[in-house]
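protien #1 (seq + structre)
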Amino acid sequence: MADLLSIAELAWRQLFPKGKDENKVLKEQFQADAKSEYAYQIWLKILAEKREEGGIEIPSYLLTEKELEVVDKEMDLSGLKIMRSLPSETWLQNVGGFGCKCNYVKSTVNLSQVLCDDDSLDDADRTYYPIGKKIIFPNGTHSDKVKIIYANNGELVDGKIEVDDAIGGIVRRSLIELYIGKVGPEDKTNNSSSDT
């Protein structure tokens, strides 16, 4: 798999082969646009799969398993790099792990208000719902730590974002199409002023 920032740099060098600091479009701009374009292309791919197949399967290279603490019936997700743009909260693939002592059943804020403890679940089953950067467990959890499987945004611990080669090719072409012929005039005075 390719690295998204490397893909952005290749596209930038293709359009700006001299790679000077005086370019109207900085390499960092390309990298920021590459991250947005990557998320957009993944989103399109998943929606197309849903249309064609009738369901959503998150690519395995985006899935991460993590065990997090639950404090006061809440799990803090603020430290995770989550791909939240996926539809219907599908970024959250599993709560409790496999072979858990109880089943965790996803709910929503509205559904929890409507049912108000009348959810007809077994006593061992627990509901949860994501809200903001946390997961709420209204009936508590079976343990102080609970495993979750979620769709990460592709970013690894070292800051690199691994990208499927097919998506990487689409991102590179999109970046070139976005910027080719649409860049302001070159600063011929080489003094970083807006006057040419």
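ok now protien #2
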Amino acid sequence: MKTFLLLVLTVTALFIWQRNGKPTATETKATREMPAATSSPARPTSDHNWAKHSLDRAHAVADQMRKSGEENHLP
């Protein structure tokens, strides 16, 4: 019982610590200085919706691979 209680308290403490963690100055500076994507996607990406953003990125990469495959197979 003591082990279970210790495990619950540890997980709770880690959850609260992670949730309330603030980015350090270097992390904030690095996110501001990230370069923009070099290629413009066919569809605009949504930064606020991470699921849509990941799907849009997957489509962009698939299109890029298809184009490079077509260019490599030209006679």
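The CA atoms of residues 14 and 20 lie 10 Å apart.
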